[in-house]
Design a protein that fits this description.
This protein is an alpha+beta fold and 1362 residues long. It contains 39 helices and 53 strands. An eight-stranded mixed β-sheet has the order 28-32-26-39-36-37-38-47. Helix 19 (535-560) crosses helix 39 (1332-1338). The protein is globular and about 95 Å long. It starts with 6 loop residues before the first strand and ends in a 24-residue tail after the last helix. The relative contact order is 0.10. The active site is at residue 1294. One of its GO terms (molecular function) is 2 iron, 2 sulfur cluster binding. Its EC number is 1.17.1.4. Keywords: 2Fe-2S, FAD, Flavoprotein, Iron, Iron-sulfur, Metal-binding, Molybdenum, NAD, Oxidoreductase, Peroxisome. Substrate binds at residues 834, 946.
Length: 1362
């Protein structure tokens, strides 16, 4: 601290209008931790800890005295130090509205528009939208899109969120699905055409529903909600900015210093103070948004003892327009830079602002709005990241930096090839401070373009980025000066010096382009083992982007020198176009309730999710939101860093020496026989003892006073290893070592005879990558000792309450009746919380029992991704025999899955893959074998659709290859082999009520498929660098647990004397609307409003021996159990209803109570007509019924970069008679988007040593708002009741995911067109996911032919395909 300076060490800020003063602030504490732990404002969530998901979004407000204006901006509370909000106002989701007072317009819309499912990330989205409205009371959809970058959702597919908020924008009337009852889009469709010609047969009374004719259609409707009922947004009613912050100036002008145990935080107010601090602490880190240092501290275990925040130093936050450009203080935020440059672009001649335009375009895709609001231009430069988005632009522009030190004074540095000296290093000296950045104007004869290619278009780090600037000699097309800067091609941002030198003086023509691409490859070599991988793709991108630059400049020159330069062709023009946001639109169609249905009967109505309003206000409680118990402790895992090794020693001494640490637990704390767990086979150690079998395996558990202390201590537990061979990482490794659990086989007919009788036989293989669940709520559990008899209460974010209870009891050595597992709700699960939770809920129970204190654990995102596994990667090898007409005669498939280090559910996943692999295709001769491979990866587990997505995409590849071989339309091949009712599957189950052809015909009609196929062909014939593809895919999906005993369910209904009803059942609510549907079922049977029925939690002391909430069966199973229990109640009330027919529910309940009649009932259901399935004998009926559907998807592909956009998707899904169309449509859309991620974006990368390299949203990309189809139409098949489930409904959770295969095959079709244009075979292998890398490298052309194969010479690759 500078001498003779008055400082403040008391933190002062406002939260939701209330003043907070704290004189004991630890600078390491983030705003999120402070809000949740100290202020108990738990609506703001921890989703990732790196500013990549938006769950922690809050609004900060400050008073700008120069402009006399309050500035509002959203930030990521998980990164913002609480010290940084000194003198600011913080608004959280709790501060804008509640269910107890009034809802804000934003909260109401996201809830009523069905934009919330699991609800965990809903507060973050609410706060992003709220901040937008505070800045722009009537925003555009484009502004809405900008504010939502950096905000992720895994459940709700984004469409209803945008539709719900559309009414608050200037685009309110646009698009479909507007929510109004007189929607013009609905009027434009004749319902008879929409539904097609339907035929059916009469059914009977079953499952509580009297069914009419199959195919008999009620009126179609699209009204999921009525937008006209929404309260209008009134800006005048917003929370008032604290007047004290306007009046008082001391909090802005005072020098602030906060000292913690390990870190001291300074906020100087003058440049002199800053320079003095840097002289005294040259290694101090200067932070503005903490967006880089925060990540380093959390994920790289860095510790920076001195932090300096320069945001109150005038020189560093100043923006100055000069004669030659704009000078930005180094602490100016990226959002301010956006605003400044946009004003410059709007007011100055176009030629003068070409650098500015390029920066604006880059910033659009730079992280999320919350990051841009906090991060500064200086941080971007000084962190010296080799993949910085701005540094290539600044280098190409020749930006000039002003640096200053106390001793050395001022110097100016041009950002050129000498600026970066190595990885994360530059020429600025430790004692110097970056003061300002000067960004120059361009001249009339100059052109400037920036490029970025990433895995996902919005909010993603670059794979390769570039800044390109060319200046021409006066009145000439000869190059005077060329600057080419690239990121992602070396340990630093680099300039292509030889290319720049060689091309100077040359004319801007095709020979320059040809020479330039060759020179760039020499300038930018890349080792085959380079960090980041994708070596050939990255090299291809450098020359592809240069080609785009060449075309862009040539197009401008052709306007200036038409006699010298040919204008761009239409195809070349499309290659230069930048992506523009187009607000999505769509229509959702479903069957309206029949005439005469009572207004209080909720079945078939789009009822709002039962917890939606609590989601939107932050009142919904998740495990980690629960109030702390007295004496509660927090736990952190100690994980293996080796994939296969002996444990030589475990040294926890240093960890136990840290103040606040209460204990360390490992295998020594349990008898050997109780250290084994597993859902099917107990083949997994709870704590690794003698050896580890994967990276991320649990070795120990540190328990401490708080989470930060536990995590810090866990990092210093020392493990010594000795590697064991072999280390099996990939499926290919497993095949080589024959490492697998018992293979499964299904045989139908005589396959070899089928091949002999076939006119043609083809073979092939395909790899399908795995997938991370990426539920927004990571694993969270709380174990509370009951205090007597060794009992334990476990509050768990699990899909499997009974399984958790069973494992806790077994490891603690107590009977099940002493352990209760409670589940309130889950912030998403998708299968990832079915079995893997036991690796956390059980260890903390061990610690809680030993210490006799409550123990809680909540994983960080990177820990969760390392520990818990995901969807199984698959390798499919197939052989098919067929006739010349395309009829299948014989099919043989071998499927290999990467199961990881323990069996878990890998056998069951493979079983479902074998059963569902046929999709919708007949074949009398089949032989399919599945090998669940045992490897040294974390155990893979259940994931939505359970092996079927991997198997079906392989089958569809096989089908498409048959069509290609016969030169037939693939649709024709599909229809020739498509199942119909009465056909028998390869597992001997007869198909009943098979509606797949109806779904197909309807979606083909609704999508105008045949006409659009022709339009796609016409587009492709006139476009060389941009291609389109369109694909129609059908779906069949079996519903039922293979293991017969799992097909059972229980429920408990309790009616209280005031007439209110408490309902319990064995299923868990994880966003799929299960509780909502159960309330609807109970409401219909009991004939009371849904408002009188409440579900509190799922608990093993209410409903015992429950089946896991999985396989899309919970509505079927628990719906029937609830129906059974409610029917019992109604039967007991019948005498009182009969004796008082004019009475009401309360009267009958009161009469029964006084007559001593039980008003509670248990319901039970076991699925009739199924018998499980035996793979050894190929006997049994595994499925209760089948779901059917079909989809048409059209995509557009950039052949030069591999980027793709989904232009339109149409889905028709058979969900029977929908219990709740809003929930079911939500499940259809959400599953489809998760499938889109699986097949196109989401790529898990492992090192050759088995280390997961993609451990958070920064490196692992799930779909974002920009990835939804631009037009997304969903129609629920009408007139298709299902007599085998409650009220004639069908499951919807999993089946629609498989319809995303239509995206994959549309992409493949587009790529095939590109290949054909370039003279390459349109028949090619494309593995899943179809990432930008795979797409670009499959679009072979003259540029990719220049790329030499990346050959490893005794080097290890950066990553391997597992």
């Amino acid at each position: 601290m500078p001498e003779n300076l008055v400082t403040s060490s008391t933190l002062v800020f406002f939260v939701n209008g209330k003043k907070v003063e704290d004189s004991d602030v630890d600078p390491e504490v983030t705003l999120l931790t402070y809000l949740r732990s100290k202020l108990r404002l738990c609506g703001t969530k921890l989703g990732c800890g790196e500013g990549g998901c938006g769950a922690c979004t809050v609004m900060l407000s400050r008073y700008d005295r120069r402009r006399d204006q309050v500035i509002h901006y959203s930030v990521n509370a998980c990164l913002a130090p609480v010290a940084a909000v000194h003198g600011l106002a913080v608004t959280t989701v709790e501060g804008i509205g509640s269910t107890q007072t009034r809802l804000h317009a934003v909260q109401e819309r996201i809830a009523r528009a069905h934009g919330s499912q699991c609800g965990f990330r809903t507060p973050g989205i609410v706060m992003s939208m709220y901040t937008l409205l505070r800045n722009h009371p009537r925003p555009s959809m484009d502004q809405l899109d900008q504010y939502f970058t950096g905000t992720l959702c895994r459940c709700t597919r984004y469409r209803p969120i945008l539709e719900g908020f559309r009414g608050l924008t200037t685009d309110a009337p646009a698009g479909g699905g507007c929510g109004k009852k007189d929607c013009c889009k609905l009027k434009a469709k004749d319902s008879a055409e929409t539904n097609g010609l339907l035929n059916g047969t009469t059914s009977k009374v079953q499952n509580g529903e009297t069914e009419g004719q199959l195919g008999e259609v009620s009126d179609v409707t699209h009204v999921l909600y009525d937008a006209e009922d929404f309260q209008p947004y009134d800006p005048s009613q917003e929370l008032i900015f604290p007047p004290e912050l306007k009046v008082q100036t001391e909090w802005e002008t005072q020098y602030v210093e906060f000292r913690g145990p390990r870190v001291t935080y300074h906020r100087p107010t003058t440049l002199a103070e800053l320079l003095k601090l840097k002289t005294e602490h040259p290694q101090a880190r200067i932070i503005v948004g903490n967006t880089e240092v925060g990540v380093e501290v959390k994920f790289k275990n860095q510790i920076y003892p001195v932090l300096i925040n320069p945001t109150n130093i005038p020189e560093l936050i100043e923006v100055t327009v000069t004669e030659t450009g704009v000078k930005f203080g180094s602490s100016v935020t990226l959002s301010t830079i956006e605003d400044t440059l946009r004003h410059q672009v709007d007011t100055l001649p176009e030629y003068q602002t070409r650098v500015f335009s390029a920066i604006l375009e880059m910033l659009r895709w730079f992280a999320g709005k919350q990051i841009r609001n906090a991060a500064a231009i200086g941080g971007n430069i000084m962190t010296s990241s080799p993949i910085s988005d701005l540094n290539p632009l600044l280098m190409a522009a020749g930006a000039v930096l002003t640096v200053r030190s106390a001793e050395g004074g001022v110097r100016e540095i041009e950002m050129d090839e000498n600026f970066f000296t190595g990885y994360r290093r530059n020429v600025v000296r430790p004692e110097e401070v970056l003061e300002a950045v000067h960004v120059p104007y361009t001249h009339e004869n100059e052109y400037f373009v920036g490029y970025k290619q990433a895995r996902r278009r919005d909010d993603d780090i670059a794979i390769v980025n570039a800044g390109m600037r060319v200046a021409f000699r006066p009145d000439s097309i000869a190059v005077e000066r060329l600057r080419l800067a690239f990121g992602g091609m070396a340990p630093t941002t680099v300039m292509a010096l030889s290319t720049m030198k060689e091309l100077e003086g040359r004319c801007w023509d095709s020979s320059l382009m040809e020479a330039g691409t060759s020179l760039l490859l020499q300038d930018l070599p890349l080792s085959a083992s380079a960090p980041g991988g994708m070596v050939e793709y990255r090299r291809a991108l450098t020359i592809s982007l240069f080609f785009k630059f060449y075309l862009s400049v040539r197009g401008r020159l052709s306007e200036q020198f038409p006699s010298l330069v040919h204008p761009l062709t239409k195809a070349e023009q499309t290659a230069t176009q930048v992506h523009r946001y187009i607000p999505p639109q769509g229509t959702q169609l479903f069957q309206s309730v029949p005439p005469g249905q009572h207004s209080l009967d909720p079945i078939g109505r789009p009822i709002t999710h039962a917890s939606a309003f609590k989601h939107a206000t932050g009142e919904a409680v998740y495990v980690d939101d629960m109030p702390r118990f007295e004496n509660e402790l927090q736990a952190a895992p100690v994980l293996s860093t080796r994939a296969h090794a002996k444990i030589l020693s475990i040294d926890e001494k240093e960890a136990l020496g840290i103040e606040g640490v209460e204990g360390f637990f490992c295998w020594k704390d349990l008898p050997e026989e109780r250290n084994k767990v597993g859902p099917i086979a107990a083949d997994e150690e709870l704590f690794a003892s003698k050896k580890v079998v994967c990276v991320g395996q649990l070795i120990g558990l540190v328990v401490a006073k708080d989470r930060a202390t536990a995590q810090r201590a866990a990092r210093v537990v020392r493990i010594q290893y000795e590697d064991i061979k072999p280390c099996i990482i990939t499926i290919q490794d497993a095949i080589k070592e024959q490492s697998w659990w018992t293979p499964l086989t299904i045989t139908k007919g005589d396959v070899e005879a089928g091949f002999r009788s076939s006119e043609h036989v083809l073979e092939g293989e395909m790899h399908v990558g795995g997938q991370e669940h990426f539920y927004l709520e990571t694993h969270a559990h709380l174990a509370v000792p009951k205090g007597e008899d060794g009992g334990m209460e476990v509050y768990s974010a699990t899909q499997n309450a009974a399984g958790t209870q069973r494992h806790v009891a077994a490891v603690l050595g107590v009977p099940l009746n002493l352990v209760t597992c409670r589940v309130k709700r889950l912030g998403g699960a998708f299968g990832g919380k079915e079995t893997r939770n036991i690796m956390l809920s059980v260890p903390i129970s061990v610690a809680a029992a030993a210490l006799k204190r409550p123990v809680r654990i909540s994983l960080d995102r990177d820990e969760d991704m390392q520990m818990t596994g995901g969807r199984h990667p698959f390798l499919g090898r197939w052989k098919i025999g067929f006739t010349k007409e395309g009829v299948f005669k014989a099919i043989k498939i071998d499927l290999y899955s990467n199961g990881g280090c323990s069996l878990d559910l890998s056998g069951a996943v493979m079983g479902y893959a074998l059963l569902n692999h046929d999709n919708v295709y007949r074949c009398e001769n089949r032989h399919i074998t599945g090998y669940p491979c045992k490897t040294n990866l974390p155990s893979n587990t259940a994931f939505r659709a359970f092996g079927s997505p991997q198997a079906i995409i392989v089958t569809e590849y096989m089908v498409s290859r048959v069509a290609e071989f016969l030169n037939m339309d693939p649709d024709e091949v599909r229809l020739k082999n498509m199942y119909v009712s009465g056909d028998v599957t390869h597992y001997k189950q007869t198909l009943e009520r098979c509606t797949v052809r109806r779904c197909w015909d309807e979606v083909v009609s609704q999508a105008d498929y045949h006409m659009r196929k022709e339009m796609v062909q016409q587009f492709n014939s006139s476009n060389k660098y941009t291609k389109r593809g369109i694909a129609a895919l059908p779906l069949k999906f079996g519903l039922g647990f293979i293991e017969l005993f799992l097909n059972q369910a229980g429920a408990l209904v309790m009616v209280y004397t005031d007439g209110s009803v408490l309902l319990s059942h064995g299923g868990t609510e994880m966003g799929q609307g299960l509780h909502t549907k159960m309330i609807q079922v109970a409401s219909r049977v009991l004939k009371i409003p849904v408002t009188r029925i409440y579900i509190d939690e799922t608990s093993t002391d209410k409903v015992p021996n429950t089946t896991s909430t999985a396989a899309s069966l919970s509505s079927d199973l628990y719906g029937m159990a609830v129906l059974n229990a409610c029917t019992i109640i109604m039967q007991r009330l019948e005498p009182y209803i009969a004796s008082n027919p004019k009475g009401e529910w309360d009267d009958w309940v009161t009469a029964a109570y006084f007559d001593r009649v039980s008003l509670s009932a248990t319901g039970f259901y076991k699925t009739p007509g199924i018998s499980g399935y035996n793979f050894e004998t190929n006997e049994g009926r595994p499925f209760n019924y089948f779901c059917f559907g079909a989809a048409v998807t059209e995509v557009e592909v950039d052949c030069l970069t591999g980027d793709h956009s989904v232009l339109r998707t149409d889905i028709v899904m058979d969900v029977g008679d929908s219990l709740n169309p809003a929930v079911d449509i939500g499940q259809v859309e959400g599953a489809f988007m998760q499938g889109l991620g699986l097949y196109t974006l989401e790529e898990l990368r492992y090192s050759p040593e088995g280390v997961l390299l993609t451990r958070g949203p920064g490196t692992y990309k799930i779909p974002g708002f920009q990835n939804i189809p631009r037009e997304f139409n969903v129609s629920l098949l009408r007139g298709a009741p299902n007599p085998r489930a409650v009220f004639s409904s069908k499951a919807t959770g999993e089946p629609p995911l498989l319809l995303a295969t239509s995206v994959f095959y549309a992409i493949k079709q587009a790529v095939a067109s590109a290949r054909a244009d370039q003279g390459f075979s349109p028949v090619f292998r494309l593995d899943s996911p179809a990432t930008a890398e795979r797409i670009r490298m499959a679009c072979q052309d003259s540029l990719t032919q220049k790329i030499e194969p990346a050959v490893l010479n005794n080097e290890k690759p950066w990553s391997v395909t597992v």
